[in-house]
Amino acid sequence: MSDPDKPPSLEDLEGRLRQARGKRDDGTSRGQAERRLTEGKSSLGLAWQLGVEMITAVAVCTVGGWWLDRWLGTRPWIMVALFLLGVSAGTLNAYRLAMRFGREAQEPPEGDEDR
Q1: Are residues 34 and 60 in the same domain?
Q2: What percent of the chain shows pLDDT beyond 70?
Q3: What DSSP state is assigned to residue 29?
Q4: Whole-model pTM above 0.70?
């Protein structure tokens, strides 16, 4: 006798999850949907993100340096060193972000490889 209340097997669940992750309701693949999200980013949004990357790195390092200087009594040397480190880290983060968006802009859309 088979139990009508028996839940579906794990293999069935795994197959359904794989199918749901592979295709969206509109028939596009997951990569195409993610590409649409990055293509829709405006220049202003990218500029804000770059600015936040820079300011955050500099602010965190400077405040950390100020706190360490105050704690160790070495004013202002650690703060200056960490400020310079924050500027370098912010610049590197901004460079990586810009390069990632540059690569995404140069890649051909999926399905256009034949052209």
Answers
A1: no
A2: 70
A3: B
A4: no
